[in-house]
Amino acid sequence: METSGSDGRQPLAHPLLKGQKALVTGANSGIGKATAIGLGRAGADVVVNYVAGRDAAEDVVREIESFGVRAYAHEADVSQEKQVSDMVDRMVQKFGTIDVMVANAGLQRDAPLTDMTMAQWQKVLDVNLTGQFLCAREAAKEFMRRGVVPEVSRSVGKIICMSSVHQIIPWAGHVNYASSKGGVQMLMATLAQELAPHRIRVNAVAPGAIRTPINRSAWDTPEAEADLLRLVPYDRVGDPDDIANVVAALASDLFDYVVGTTLYVDGGMTLFPGFATGG
Ligand code: NAD
Known about the structure:
Blueprint: E1 21-24, H1 30-41, E2 45-50, H2 54-65, E3 71-75, H3 81-95, E4 100-103, H4 118-146, E5 157-162, H5 175-195, E6 200-207, H6 222-229, H7 240-251, E7 262-265
Parallel strand pairs: 1-2, 1-4, 2-3, 4-5, 5-6, 6-7
Helix pairs in contact: 1-2, 1-7, 3-4, 4-5
Bound molecules: nicotinamide-adenine-dinucleotide.
GO molecular function: glucose 1-dehydrogenase [NAD(P)+] activity
Protein name: Glucose 1-dehydrogenase
EC number: 1.1.1.47
């Protein structure tokens, strides 16, 4: 590939994902945005899903196109069955198929248990868990229809679930979110077991504390950031690119034998840092 991105970074000498078609949900903000751009930089054509904020999605499309690959924005709510199947159908019409599904879209609706409404509980489960089920199902149907294309990838397709350290770390005041991510862990593992015989690889990425709009209050003052860093042995808040780089590698054939795994990308947050000096 000859082009470099608008951020001035050099293109990869051998694009990891050349010829692959990727869809990233929730791709006009934060981790999804960085991931969509990262997959484009790695040589993939990319569908930029968003639910609100068309201008931001179109900005991501333009940045991806600057790498010399194709991209377009698609509005869809991942918790709505018909909208997800229409989104994948349109991708197959426009790009011919799908090789990589990154089920990234997610949100929080925080409250202590006794204040949490049914609507808060249901919204988080609908988007964070049901949304990933729908995206995985629609991608898997197309993977199975198409079969392996050896010059594109050794596997038939890749599904990458965006989980969280809260798939294993309990989180008071966020029972809906932690339950949804615990669900994502078992969704991922069960789908990995079910789909591996079809040469479909299902894995998850579990970010720790990444600087995005979802958790702004946790890092946007020096005091909040210092408090947060007590939980991060590596002593820095993560950037969306930390996740994007791992997703690109995981989607590539470098990781062809990695099936049913969660990659924690968390600066050591899951290492029980409180025990470094206590216990
Ligand atoms: P973000 O708020 O910047 O991005 C979330 C994206 O999901 C947005 O584009 C939003 O519009 C989209 N979205 C929300 N509901 C949707 C729906 N119904 N349909 C389609 N898209 C929808 O937050 P982020 O930090 O980039 O979060 C991305 C993912 O990473 C989430 O699944 C989140 O749980 C996970 N995560 C983030 C962190 C972190 O520290 N930022 C840590 C662990 C896990």
